[in-house]
C-alpha cells in the first residue's frame, strides 16, 4: 500500500520474526524480514526501509557489524533487539549508532510503540531558522534542506539521534539543556531508556564536530547542569 512505512527486520529466530511481523502489519506497516546479516544488508540497500529492527546475535554477521555498516552511509533509524541486559552492552549498541534498544523477551505491543516513537522523533526536526547555518567561518555547516552536516567542508555522518540533538542545541544556542530536557526535545517524550544515553550521543557528536575534545567549542558542558551549544554563527 502506498504511503506505508517500511520496516526491515533482521533476526534469525523465525518465531520472533513471525510475531513481530504480525504486530507491525496489524499497525499498517510494510514489513520485510531477513534471517541473516548478509541478506539483511542486501535487503537494506534494495528495500530502503524507514526503520530497521536488528537482532544483535545473528549466525553470520553480528548486529553491531551491521549497524556500523548501515551508519557508514545512512541515518535510517535502528532499534536493536538483544538478550544482553547489561547496561554496558546496551550503551555500546547506542554508541555505534542505534537509536533505541529492546531486551528479549519483549512484548509485540511495546515494540510497535517503540517503532512509532522512533519514527516520530526522527521525522519531526526543530523548525529551521535558516536553510544553511555555518559556524566559525565555515568550520561547521548544517544544511537543513538536505539534512547534511559538514566539518571543514567534509560531509560527516550523524545518526538520527545525533542529528536531532545537534539541531536542538543549535536552535537555542544560549540555553543550557539538562539530560532530561535533551531527551524530551531531541529524542521525544515517548523515549524510554537511560538518561546516560545523552552522554553517549554527546561523546560521539564531539568526536565528529570538535577539533579538541578536551576543549570543545560547539558541544559544551555546563558542569552541574547539562549541555549547550557554543560557536560563532554565520547565517546563510
From TrEMBL:
Modification 4-aspartylphosphate occurs at: 55
DNA-binding region(s), chain positions: 130-231
UniProt-listed SUPFAM superfamilies: C-terminal effector domain of the bipartite response regulators, CheY-like
GO BP: regulation of DNA-templated transcription
Pfam family, one: Trans_reg_C
Residue ranges of domain OmpR/PhoB-type in the record: 130-231
Protein name per its UniProtKB record: Stage 0 sporulation protein A homolog
Record keywords: DNA-binding, Phosphoprotein, Transcription, Transcription regulation, Two-component regulatory system
Residue ranges constituting the Response regulatory domain according to the UniProt record: 6-119
Superkingdom: Bacteria
Species in which this protein is naturally found: Anaerosolibacter carboniphilus
Gene Ontology annotations for the cellular component aspect, listed alphabetically: cytosol; protein-DNA complex
Amino acid at each position: 500500500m502506498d504511503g506505508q512505512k517500511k520496516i526491515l527486520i533482521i533476526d534469525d529466530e523465525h518465531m520472533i520474526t513471525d510475531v513481530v511481523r504480525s504486530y507491525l502489519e496489524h499497525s499498517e506497516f510494510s514489513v520485510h524480514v531477513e534471517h541473516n546479516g548478509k541478506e539483511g544488508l542486501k535487503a537494506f540497500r534494495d528495500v530502503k526501509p524507514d526503520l530497521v529492527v536488528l537482532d544483535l546475535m545473528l549466525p553470520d554477521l553480528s548486529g553491531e557489524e551491521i549497524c556500523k555498516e548501515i551508519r557508514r552511509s545512512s541515518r535510517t533509524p535502528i532499534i536493536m533487539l538483544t538478550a544482553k541486559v547489561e547496561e554496558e552492552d546496551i550503551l555500546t549498541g547506542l554508541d555505534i549508532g542505534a537509536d533505541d534498544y529492546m531486551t528479549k523477551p519483549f512484548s509485540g505491543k511495546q515494540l510497535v510503540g517503540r517503532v512509532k516513537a522512533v519514527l516520530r522523533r526522527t521525522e519531526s526536526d526543530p523548525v529551521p531558522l535558516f536553510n544553511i547555518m555555518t559556524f566559525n567561518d565555515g568550520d561547521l555547516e548544517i544544511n537543513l534542506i538536505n539534512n547534511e552536516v559538514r566539518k571543514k567542508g567534509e560531509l560527516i555522518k550523524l545518526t538520527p539521534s545525533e542529528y536531532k540533538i545537534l539541531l536542538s542545541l543549535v536552535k537555542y544556542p544560549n540555553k543550557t539543556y539538562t539530560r532530561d530536557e535533551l531527551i524530551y526535545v531531541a529524542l521525544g517524550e515517548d523515549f524510554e531508556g537511560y538518561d546516560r544515553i545523552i552522554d553517549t550521543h554527546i561523546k560521539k557528536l564531539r568526536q565528529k564536530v570538535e577539533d579538541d575534545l578536551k576543549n570543545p567549542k560547539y558541544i559544551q558542558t555546563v558542569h552541574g547542569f547539562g549541555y549547550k551549544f557554543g560557536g560563532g554563527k554565520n547565517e546563510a
